Fold:
Amino acid sequence: MTNSDNAFGTFNKQTAIFSQIDDGSTALTVFANTDVAKSHFFTADALTVNDECCTNIQWALVADDNGDNTKLKVTFDFGTKGTSTIAQSDDWAGQYNSRKDALMSAGTWGNNAYTTEESTDHLF
Structure:
């Protein structure tokens, strides 16, 4: 469950689209829903980081050029735990970055290879 620290607003809104690697040797997975897609791209630990550190997060399936839902889109942002008394590294965005980096370094962030495209077409 996302945190509810939005008393001072939310910041650092980002949107990304995750695509499977299409090397032509195997068919891409077509996702029935966002939960299946999230589990395809990310480990349970990675999804926990998103759920705990993001104040708002929304997921959506994205169709490829063939009209198949083979991509996953996410928009998220971060609230703050307080005012100037919170170190940036201890606030939600800092926690997200450090926890993500630790999982990536351990090779436990993603389940499958993917590419990431930044988007300005936010879900919220």
